[in-house]
Amino acid sequence: MIAMRYATIPLVRRTGGLADSVEHDQTGFLFNHYDVSDFINSLIKSLEKLSDKKFRLQLQQNCFTQDFSWNQSAKQYIKTYQKIIKL
Question: Can you count the helices (H) and strands (E) in the chain?
Answer without folding.
Answer: 5, 2
